[in-house]
Amino acid sequence: MITSKNLFSPVNSEISQLNSNLEKMIGAKNRILYAASKHLFSKGGKRIRPSLIFFIAKITAPNYIILPEHKRLAEITEIIHTASLVHDDVIDDCDIRRGLESVHSTFNTKIAVLAGDFLFAQSSWYLANLNNLEVVKTISKVITDFAEGEIRQGLTSFDTTISIDDYMEKSFYKTATLIACSCKATAILSKCSKNTQNDFYAYGKHFGLAFQIIDDILDITSSKEQLGKPAGSDLKNGNLTAPVIFALEENPELYKIINQEFQQSADVKTTIKNIKKTKGIQKSKDMAEEHIQLAINIIEERFKCTHSQKLMLINDYIINRFY
Questions:
Q1: For residue 56, which of 72, 70, 75 has the smallest C-alpha distance?
Q2: Minimal CA–CA distance to 227: which of 21, 46, 33, 53?
Q3: Between the CA atoms of 198, 203, 205 and 209, what dihedral angle is there, to the nearest 10 degrees?
Q4: Domains identified in the chain, total number
Q5: Would you tell me how many other CB atoms lie within 10 Å of the CB of residue 67?
């Protein structure tokens, strides 16, 4: 079975250095905001995004050596990801993240918003200091996409008319864009051709979409202990994801309880129980596996080597989170 331990073993030293550098990059600036950004250093973080960067760097860089610029890009990506989590928890009024109290629960909403802003600002500073305009353009777009994704999610709260296409577009803005753009930026730093840059962008996009679909399935199927936050959090907030959308097609009775926005305390549990009786979860799994396969095909067809085989372990790990 693939575990996070053997998954990251080829890049353990890089991940260890990343964790140490993140603490220095953030902690030295402001003690309060550092404390508010503690998720950045939580052991619950899977470090999937920086690991993708390190593996892609090993595939694309001259002599297969990870460059200092790749390492800094990985740090920037993780800071941006954490900033988005801090803001997400405020928007969704989520009290728990990775088994810890969320920033706005520990401090207050004002500090949480400022902490998220601080992290975005820090990432922008370090991004500018890479002195690579193409990478700056590529990664800067991510922050705009995050805002677009949050707005779309807010406008479709409890909207039972949302389509799978709408959901996938929102998932791209909220999750896949960071992964896609960081994969592309890795290839840019390796001085790869435009075609190779676009290949890794496509890889990251499909990987990111699969990752989000699987997260949304786990929100329905997993426990609070497994998730590090209450199960059904997205559903409770009116965020209708793939399993819900597919279940609505099969069981129209779900429309009534969702349209009433879970007025009764047991409504979320009842809805989850009814979703599990449909093929919604299986259809969502199938869709996630399709995107993972598309990501795999890009690597196997164009970048097959020792390091790419190790990159494939991450794809397997994502799918095996179901089991």
A1: 70
A2: 46
A3: 170
A4: 1
A5: 15
- Do residues 139 and 182 make contact, with C-beta atoms less than 8 angstroms apart? yes
Beta-carbon contacts of 311 under 8 Å, excluding residues fewer than 6 positions away, are 52, 55, 56, 59, 299
- CATH for 254: 1.10.600.10
Is the whole-model pTM more than 0.85? yes
Which tens digit of pLDDT belongs to each residue from 200-210? 999 999 999 99
Block residue for tokens 């250093």: 41
- Which tokens belong to 140? 């800067």
Quote the domain boundaries for residue 45.
4-320
d(CA 237, CA 136): 34
Residue 264, Ramachandran bin (φ over 0: left; ψ between -120 and 50: alpha; else beta): beta
Question: In the prediction, which pLDDT does 304 show?
Answer: 76
What residue ranges in the chain does DSSP mark as E strands? 96-97, 100-101
